[in-house]
Amino acid sequence: MKIETQCLHEGYERKNGDPGALPIVQSTTYVFDSTQHIADLFDMPTEYMYSRFANPTVDAVEKKIAALEGGAAAMCTTSGQAASLLSVLNLCNAGDSILAVSSLYGGTINLFAVSLKKLGIKCIFVDPEATDEELQNALEPNTKLVFGETLANPALNVFDIERFANFAHKNKIPLIVDNTFPTPILCRPIEFGADIVIHSTTKYMDGHALQGGGVIVDSGKFDWTNGKFPEFTEPDESYHGVVYSETFGNIAYIIKARMQLMRDFGCYPAANSAFLLNLGLETLAVRMERYCKNALTVAEFLKNSENVESVSYPGLEGDKYYERAKKYLPNGTSGVISFVIKGGRERATRFMDALKLASREVHVADIRTCVLHPASMTHRQLTDEQLVAAGINAGLIRFSVGLENVDDILDDIKQAFANS
Ligand SMILES: *Cc1c(COP(=O)(O)O)cnc(C)c1O
What we know:
The protein is of the alpha/beta class and 420 residues long. The chain has 17 helices and twelve strands. The strands form two sheets. A seven-stranded mixed β-sheet has the order 1-7-6-5-4-2-3, with helices on both faces. α5 links the parallel β2 (97-101) and β3. α1 packs antiparallel against α3 (56-69) and α3 (56-69) runs parallel beside α12 (271-282). It is globular. 49% of the residues are buried.
Protein backbone atom coordinates (compact mmCIF):
# COMPACT_ATOMS: atom_id res chain seq x y z
CA MET A 1 0.00 0.00 0.00
CA LYS A 2 1.09 3.56 -0.68
CA ILE A 3 1.36 5.83 2.32
CA GLU A 4 -1.95 7.66 1.71
CA THR A 5 -3.70 4.27 1.73
CA GLN A 6 -1.79 3.13 4.81
CA CYS A 7 -3.09 6.17 6.69
CA LEU A 8 -6.60 4.79 6.24
CA HIS A 9 -6.15 1.04 6.14
CA GLU A 10 -3.21 0.01 8.35
CA GLY A 11 -3.64 -0.92 12.01
CA TYR A 12 -7.23 -1.86 12.60
CA GLU A 13 -8.14 -4.97 10.67
CA ARG A 14 -11.84 -5.28 10.04
CA LYS A 15 -13.32 -8.73 9.80
CA ASN A 16 -16.79 -9.78 8.74
CA GLY A 17 -19.40 -7.84 10.75
CA ASP A 18 -16.85 -5.71 12.64
CA PRO A 19 -17.43 -2.00 13.28
CA GLY A 20 -16.27 0.09 10.35
CA ALA A 21 -14.49 2.67 12.50
CA LEU A 22 -11.80 1.83 15.04
CA PRO A 23 -13.63 0.86 18.26
CA ILE A 24 -12.65 2.52 21.53
CA VAL A 25 -11.97 -0.28 23.99
CA GLN A 26 -12.47 1.77 27.11
CA SER A 27 -11.40 -0.87 29.60
CA THR A 28 -8.33 -1.24 31.75
CA THR A 29 -8.72 -4.96 32.05
CA TYR A 30 -9.67 -8.19 30.25
CA VAL A 31 -11.30 -11.27 31.72
CA PHE A 32 -10.29 -14.94 31.42
CA ASP A 33 -11.80 -18.32 32.29
CA SER A 34 -8.87 -19.64 34.30
CA THR A 35 -6.03 -18.56 36.56
CA GLN A 36 -3.64 -20.60 34.48
CA HIS A 37 -4.58 -18.65 31.36
CA ILE A 38 -3.54 -15.38 33.05
CA ALA A 39 -0.39 -16.99 34.46
CA ASP A 40 0.55 -18.03 30.92
CA LEU A 41 0.03 -14.46 29.74
CA PHE A 42 2.50 -13.23 32.32
CA ASP A 43 5.04 -15.59 30.76
CA MET A 44 4.22 -14.70 27.18
CA PRO A 45 1.89 -11.74 26.58
CA THR A 46 0.04 -12.94 23.50
CA GLU A 47 -3.32 -11.43 24.47
CA TYR A 48 -4.51 -8.23 26.12
CA MET A 49 -4.21 -8.49 29.88
CA TYR A 50 -4.01 -5.01 31.35
CA SER A 51 -4.12 -1.74 29.40
CA ARG A 52 -0.82 -0.45 30.77
CA PHE A 53 0.81 -3.22 28.71
CA ALA A 54 -1.48 -3.11 25.70
CA ASN A 55 -4.97 -2.04 24.66
CA PRO A 56 -6.67 -2.93 21.35
CA THR A 57 -7.38 0.70 20.35
CA VAL A 58 -3.85 1.82 21.19
CA ASP A 59 -2.46 -1.30 19.55
CA ALA A 60 -4.16 -0.50 16.24
CA VAL A 61 -2.68 2.99 16.24
CA GLU A 62 0.78 1.63 17.09
CA LYS A 63 0.55 -0.77 14.16
CA LYS A 64 -0.53 2.03 11.84
CA ILE A 65 2.34 4.33 12.85
CA ALA A 66 4.87 1.48 12.61
CA ALA A 67 3.64 0.82 9.07
CA LEU A 68 3.78 4.51 8.11
CA GLU A 69 7.39 4.75 9.29
CA GLY A 70 8.34 1.44 7.69
CA GLY A 71 9.20 0.04 11.13
CA ALA A 72 8.69 -3.36 12.76
CA ALA A 73 6.77 -2.26 15.86
CA ALA A 74 5.80 0.80 17.85
CA MET A 75 4.80 1.84 21.35
CA CYS A 76 2.60 4.84 22.13
CA THR A 77 3.21 7.02 25.16
CA THR A 78 1.34 9.83 26.86
CA SER A 79 3.51 12.57 25.34
CA GLY A 80 6.43 13.28 23.08
CA GLN A 81 8.53 13.95 26.17
CA ALA A 82 7.74 10.47 27.49
CA ALA A 83 8.71 8.99 24.11
CA SER A 84 12.07 10.80 24.13
CA LEU A 85 12.73 9.75 27.71
CA LEU A 86 11.84 6.08 27.26
CA SER A 87 13.69 5.81 23.95
CA VAL A 88 16.88 6.69 25.84
CA LEU A 89 16.20 4.84 29.10
CA ASN A 90 15.66 1.65 27.10
CA LEU A 91 19.37 1.73 26.21
CA CYS A 92 21.09 3.64 29.02
CA ASN A 93 21.75 3.17 32.70
CA ALA A 94 23.43 5.51 35.17
CA GLY A 95 27.03 5.90 34.08
CA ASP A 96 26.21 5.78 30.36
CA SER A 97 26.21 8.71 27.97
CA ILE A 98 24.38 9.74 24.82
CA LEU A 99 25.49 11.90 21.92
CA ALA A 100 22.89 14.44 20.74
CA VAL A 101 23.00 17.26 18.24
CA SER A 102 22.40 20.67 19.83
CA SER A 103 19.60 21.68 17.45
CA LEU A 104 16.71 19.97 19.18
CA TYR A 105 13.32 20.84 20.58
CA GLY A 106 13.79 22.89 23.79
CA GLY A 107 12.04 20.32 25.95
CA THR A 108 14.37 17.61 24.69
CA ILE A 109 17.44 19.72 25.42
CA ASN A 110 16.23 20.27 28.96
CA LEU A 111 15.38 16.60 29.42
CA PHE A 112 18.82 15.53 28.23
CA ALA A 113 20.89 18.27 29.86
CA VAL A 114 19.13 18.48 33.22
CA SER A 115 16.86 15.57 34.07
CA LEU A 116 18.88 12.74 32.51
CA LYS A 117 21.94 14.13 34.23
CA LYS A 118 20.18 13.73 37.57
CA LEU A 119 19.65 10.07 36.67
CA GLY A 120 23.38 9.70 35.99
CA ILE A 121 23.11 9.74 32.19
CA LYS A 122 25.34 12.29 30.54
CA CYS A 123 24.43 14.01 27.30
CA ILE A 124 27.26 15.08 25.01
CA PHE A 125 25.90 17.82 22.76
CA VAL A 126 27.53 18.27 19.35
CA ASP A 127 27.04 20.72 16.52
CA PRO A 128 24.78 19.14 13.88
CA GLU A 129 27.35 20.10 11.24
CA ALA A 130 30.32 18.67 13.20
CA THR A 131 32.67 16.63 11.01
CA ASP A 132 32.86 12.86 11.39
CA GLU A 133 36.21 13.32 13.08
CA GLU A 134 34.75 15.76 15.61
CA LEU A 135 31.90 13.35 16.27
CA GLN A 136 34.35 10.51 16.80
CA ASN A 137 36.35 12.62 19.26
CA ALA A 138 33.22 13.53 21.20
CA LEU A 139 32.18 9.90 21.62
CA GLU A 140 32.97 8.11 24.89
CA PRO A 141 33.35 4.36 25.43
CA ASN A 142 30.02 4.26 27.30
CA THR A 143 28.05 6.27 24.71
CA LYS A 144 24.98 4.19 23.90
CA LEU A 145 23.19 6.13 21.19
CA VAL A 146 23.13 9.11 18.86
CA PHE A 147 20.09 11.41 18.84
CA GLY A 148 18.93 13.99 16.27
CA GLU A 149 15.78 15.69 14.99
CA THR A 150 14.89 15.51 11.28
CA LEU A 151 13.61 19.08 11.07
CA ALA A 152 14.63 20.87 14.25
CA ASN A 153 11.96 22.71 16.22
CA PRO A 154 12.25 25.72 15.87
CA ALA A 155 15.63 26.22 14.14
CA LEU A 156 14.42 24.23 11.11
CA ASN A 157 17.79 22.85 10.13
CA VAL A 158 17.67 19.54 8.30
CA PHE A 159 19.51 16.76 10.11
CA ASP A 160 21.85 14.72 7.95
CA ILE A 161 20.30 11.39 8.95
CA GLU A 162 22.35 9.19 6.65
CA ARG A 163 25.71 10.57 7.77
CA PHE A 164 24.83 10.28 11.45
CA ALA A 165 23.44 6.78 10.93
CA ASN A 166 26.69 5.68 9.31
CA PHE A 167 28.66 7.25 12.13
CA ALA A 168 26.52 5.54 14.78
CA HIS A 169 26.68 2.16 13.07
CA LYS A 170 30.44 2.37 12.67
CA ASN A 171 30.49 2.64 16.46
CA LYS A 172 27.93 -0.16 16.95
CA ILE A 173 25.32 2.13 18.48
CA PRO A 174 21.87 3.09 17.16
CA LEU A 175 20.62 6.38 15.79
CA ILE A 176 17.38 7.72 17.28
CA VAL A 177 15.58 10.38 15.24
CA ASP A 178 12.78 12.66 16.40
CA ASN A 179 10.65 12.90 13.25
CA THR A 180 7.84 15.03 14.69
CA PHE A 181 7.73 17.86 12.16
CA PRO A 182 8.01 15.95 8.87
CA THR A 183 5.84 13.01 9.97
CA PRO A 184 6.37 9.85 7.88
CA ILE A 185 4.46 11.55 5.06
CA LEU A 186 7.41 13.84 4.32
CA CYS A 187 10.35 11.79 5.60
CA ARG A 188 10.88 8.21 6.68
CA PRO A 189 14.17 8.26 8.64
CA ILE A 190 14.43 4.46 8.70
CA GLU A 191 14.98 4.52 4.92
CA PHE A 192 18.10 6.61 5.60
CA GLY A 193 19.46 4.35 8.34
CA ALA A 194 17.73 5.53 11.54
CA ASP A 195 17.17 2.66 13.98
CA ILE A 196 14.56 4.17 16.25
CA VAL A 197 12.12 6.94 15.33
CA ILE A 198 10.18 8.93 17.88
CA HIS A 199 7.37 11.46 17.59
CA SER A 200 5.42 13.92 19.57
CA THR A 201 2.05 12.86 18.11
CA THR A 202 0.68 16.02 19.74
CA LYS A 203 1.72 17.91 16.61
CA TYR A 204 0.79 17.07 13.01
CA MET A 205 -0.22 13.47 13.69
CA ASP A 206 -3.02 14.50 16.01
CA GLY A 207 -3.20 17.68 13.99
CA HIS A 208 -6.23 19.21 15.65
CA ALA A 209 -4.72 20.29 18.99
CA LEU A 210 -6.91 17.78 20.83
CA GLN A 211 -4.60 15.62 22.92
CA GLY A 212 -0.97 15.01 23.73
CA GLY A 213 0.85 11.85 22.82
CA GLY A 214 4.08 10.29 21.72
CA VAL A 215 5.30 7.19 19.96
CA ILE A 216 8.50 5.19 19.64
CA VAL A 217 9.00 3.18 16.43
CA ASP A 218 11.51 0.35 16.21
CA SER A 219 12.99 -0.20 12.74
CA GLY A 220 13.70 -3.80 13.71
CA LYS A 221 17.07 -3.51 12.01
CA PHE A 222 19.60 -2.81 14.74
CA ASP A 223 21.73 -5.74 15.96
CA TRP A 224 21.40 -5.64 19.75
CA THR A 225 23.63 -8.72 20.06
CA ASN A 226 26.77 -6.82 19.03
CA GLY A 227 28.14 -6.86 22.59
CA LYS A 228 27.29 -3.27 23.51
CA PHE A 229 23.82 -3.99 24.88
CA PRO A 230 23.95 -6.83 27.45
CA GLU A 231 20.41 -6.07 28.68
CA PHE A 232 19.15 -7.44 25.36
CA THR A 233 21.23 -10.61 25.44
CA GLU A 234 21.23 -11.52 29.14
CA PRO A 235 18.21 -12.79 31.10
CA ASP A 236 15.93 -10.11 32.57
CA GLU A 237 15.36 -11.33 36.13
CA SER A 238 12.51 -8.84 36.55
CA TYR A 239 10.67 -10.57 33.72
CA HIS A 240 10.95 -14.33 34.17
CA GLY A 241 14.52 -14.44 32.91
CA VAL A 242 13.53 -13.60 29.34
CA VAL A 243 16.34 -12.81 26.89
CA TYR A 244 14.83 -10.09 24.71
CA SER A 245 16.96 -10.56 21.61
CA GLU A 246 16.36 -14.33 21.59
CA THR A 247 12.66 -14.39 22.38
CA PHE A 248 11.56 -11.30 20.46
CA GLY A 249 14.07 -11.06 17.61
CA ASN A 250 13.68 -7.89 15.56
CA ILE A 251 11.11 -6.32 17.89
CA ALA A 252 13.27 -6.80 21.01
CA TYR A 253 13.68 -3.05 21.54
CA ILE A 254 9.96 -2.26 21.66
CA ILE A 255 9.09 -5.32 23.74
CA LYS A 256 11.81 -4.43 26.24
CA ALA A 257 10.52 -0.84 26.39
CA ARG A 258 7.00 -2.16 27.01
CA MET A 259 7.84 -4.88 29.50
CA GLN A 260 10.34 -2.87 31.54
CA LEU A 261 9.70 0.83 31.07
CA MET A 262 5.97 1.00 30.42
CA ARG A 263 5.44 -1.57 33.16
CA ASP A 264 7.43 0.50 35.67
CA PHE A 265 6.79 4.11 34.60
CA GLY A 266 3.26 3.65 33.33
CA CYS A 267 2.97 6.52 30.87
CA TYR A 268 0.45 4.77 28.61
CA PRO A 269 -2.14 6.63 26.54
CA ALA A 270 -5.88 6.28 27.07
CA ALA A 271 -7.87 4.36 24.47
CA ASN A 272 -9.90 7.48 23.81
CA SER A 273 -6.74 9.45 23.04
CA ALA A 274 -5.58 6.74 20.66
CA PHE A 275 -8.95 6.92 18.90
CA LEU A 276 -8.56 10.67 18.39
CA LEU A 277 -4.97 10.22 17.24
CA ASN A 278 -6.20 7.71 14.68
CA LEU A 279 -8.62 10.26 13.27
CA GLY A 280 -5.70 12.63 12.79
CA LEU A 281 -3.62 9.92 11.14
CA GLU A 282 -6.40 9.08 8.68
CA THR A 283 -6.13 12.53 7.07
CA LEU A 284 -2.40 13.07 7.68
CA ALA A 285 -1.27 12.65 4.08
CA VAL A 286 -3.84 15.08 2.75
CA ARG A 287 -3.15 17.62 5.45
CA MET A 288 0.65 17.53 5.11
CA GLU A 289 0.39 18.26 1.41
CA ARG A 290 -1.65 21.41 2.07
CA TYR A 291 0.50 22.56 5.02
CA CYS A 292 3.55 22.41 2.75
CA LYS A 293 1.85 24.27 -0.10
CA ASN A 294 0.54 27.06 2.15
CA ALA A 295 3.83 27.39 4.02
CA LEU A 296 5.90 27.68 0.86
CA THR A 297 3.70 30.55 -0.28
CA VAL A 298 4.02 32.29 3.09
CA ALA A 299 7.80 31.68 3.19
CA GLU A 300 8.20 33.23 -0.26
CA PHE A 301 6.20 36.25 0.85
CA LEU A 302 8.30 36.67 4.02
CA LYS A 303 11.54 36.32 2.10
CA ASN A 304 10.59 39.30 -0.05
CA SER A 305 9.21 41.41 2.81
CA GLU A 306 11.15 44.43 3.98
CA ASN A 307 9.96 43.70 7.54
CA VAL A 308 11.93 40.49 7.70
CA GLU A 309 15.60 40.01 8.44
CA SER A 310 15.77 36.32 7.55
CA VAL A 311 13.54 33.34 6.87
CA SER A 312 14.22 29.68 7.61
CA TYR A 313 12.19 27.29 5.56
CA PRO A 314 14.22 24.47 4.04
CA GLY A 315 11.72 24.11 1.20
CA LEU A 316 12.50 27.66 0.07
CA GLU A 317 15.04 28.00 -2.69
CA GLY A 318 18.16 29.66 -1.32
CA ASP A 319 17.59 28.33 2.22
CA LYS A 320 20.77 27.04 3.85
CA TYR A 321 19.26 23.55 3.98
CA TYR A 322 17.50 23.60 0.60
CA GLU A 323 19.78 21.02 -1.02
CA ARG A 324 19.68 18.69 1.96
CA ALA A 325 15.90 19.05 2.16
CA LYS A 326 15.66 17.90 -1.46
CA LYS A 327 17.23 14.63 -0.35
CA TYR A 328 15.34 14.04 2.90
CA LEU A 329 12.13 16.01 2.38
CA PRO A 330 11.49 16.05 -1.37
CA ASN A 331 7.74 16.53 -1.00
CA GLY A 332 7.84 19.52 1.32
CA THR A 333 9.19 20.69 4.62
CA SER A 334 6.02 20.96 6.74
CA GLY A 335 3.99 24.03 7.69
CA VAL A 336 6.47 25.50 10.12
CA ILE A 337 8.46 28.60 9.21
CA SER A 338 10.92 30.43 11.43
CA PHE A 339 11.70 34.03 10.65
CA VAL A 340 13.56 36.87 12.29
CA ILE A 341 11.58 40.06 12.23
CA LYS A 342 13.38 43.40 11.88
CA GLY A 343 13.32 45.22 15.22
CA GLY A 344 14.36 42.39 17.56
CA ARG A 345 12.59 40.97 20.57
CA GLU A 346 10.22 43.96 21.09
CA ARG A 347 9.02 44.12 17.50
CA ALA A 348 8.53 40.34 17.53
CA THR A 349 6.09 40.54 20.43
CA ARG A 350 4.32 43.58 18.94
CA PHE A 351 3.89 41.73 15.64
CA MET A 352 2.53 38.68 17.42
CA ASP A 353 0.07 40.73 19.42
CA ALA A 354 -1.17 42.44 16.23
CA LEU A 355 -2.11 39.18 14.48
CA LYS A 356 -5.86 38.63 14.17
CA LEU A 357 -6.29 35.29 12.41
CA ALA A 358 -3.15 33.52 13.63
CA SER A 359 -3.40 32.62 17.28
CA ARG A 360 -0.75 33.09 19.93
CA GLU A 361 -0.40 29.73 21.59
CA VAL A 362 2.08 27.28 22.98
CA HIS A 363 1.66 24.88 20.17
CA VAL A 364 2.84 24.17 16.67
CA ALA A 365 1.62 22.09 13.78
CA ASP A 366 -1.95 22.92 14.61
CA ILE A 367 -4.71 22.75 12.00
CA ARG A 368 -5.15 26.53 12.45
CA THR A 369 -2.33 29.01 11.91
CA CYS A 370 -0.54 29.70 15.17
CA VAL A 371 2.49 31.61 16.26
CA LEU A 372 5.02 31.47 19.09
CA HIS A 373 8.06 33.41 20.27
CA PRO A 374 10.65 30.80 21.34
CA ALA A 375 12.93 33.16 23.26
CA SER A 376 10.14 34.15 25.66
CA MET A 377 8.15 30.88 25.59
CA THR A 378 9.35 27.35 24.77
CA HIS A 379 13.06 28.10 25.02
CA ARG A 380 12.80 30.44 27.98
CA GLN A 381 14.81 28.06 30.15
CA LEU A 382 17.83 28.09 27.83
CA THR A 383 20.82 30.32 28.41
CA ASP A 384 21.79 32.77 25.66
CA GLU A 385 24.59 30.39 24.68
CA GLN A 386 22.19 27.46 24.42
CA LEU A 387 19.80 29.65 22.40
CA VAL A 388 22.53 30.34 19.87
CA ALA A 389 23.54 26.67 19.79
CA ALA A 390 19.91 25.73 19.16
CA GLY A 391 19.84 28.27 16.30
CA ILE A 392 17.48 30.72 17.99
CA ASN A 393 17.62 34.52 17.67
CA ALA A 394 15.73 36.69 20.20
CA GLY A 395 13.67 38.13 17.32
CA LEU A 396 12.83 34.69 15.96
CA ILE A 397 9.16 33.93 15.42
CA ARG A 398 7.94 30.42 14.83
CA PHE A 399 5.05 30.68 12.43
CA SER A 400 3.02 27.51 12.04
CA VAL A 401 0.98 27.77 8.87
CA GLY A 402 -2.43 26.15 9.09
CA LEU A 403 -4.97 24.93 6.58
CA GLU A 404 -6.84 28.22 6.08
CA ASN A 405 -6.93 29.81 2.63
CA VAL A 406 -3.40 31.12 2.21
CA ASP A 407 -4.62 34.57 1.09
CA ASP A 408 -6.25 35.07 4.49
CA ILE A 409 -3.01 34.08 6.22
CA LEU A 410 -1.03 36.53 4.08
CA ASP A 411 -3.52 39.35 4.72
CA ASP A 412 -3.16 38.80 8.45
CA ILE A 413 0.64 38.95 8.28
CA LYS A 414 0.52 42.11 6.16
CA GLN A 415 -1.75 43.97 8.59
CA ALA A 416 0.32 42.82 11.59
CA PHE A 417 3.51 44.10 9.94
CA ALA A 418 1.78 47.42 9.32
CA ASN A 419 0.53 47.62 12.90
CA SER A 420 3.68 46.63 14.76
C1 LIG B 1 6.53 19.09 21.01
C2 LIG B 1 7.72 18.32 20.71
C3 LIG B 1 8.20 17.33 21.58
C4 LIG B 1 7.55 17.06 22.92
O1 LIG B 1 6.29 16.57 22.73
P1 LIG B 1 5.07 16.70 23.78
O2 LIG B 1 4.03 15.87 23.15
O3 LIG B 1 4.74 18.13 23.92
O4 LIG B 1 5.57 16.12 25.06
C5 LIG B 1 9.31 16.61 21.20
N1 LIG B 1 9.92 16.84 20.03
C6 LIG B 1 9.49 17.78 19.16
C7 LIG B 1 10.21 17.98 17.87
C8 LIG B 1 8.39 18.54 19.46
O5 LIG B 1 7.97 19.48 18.61
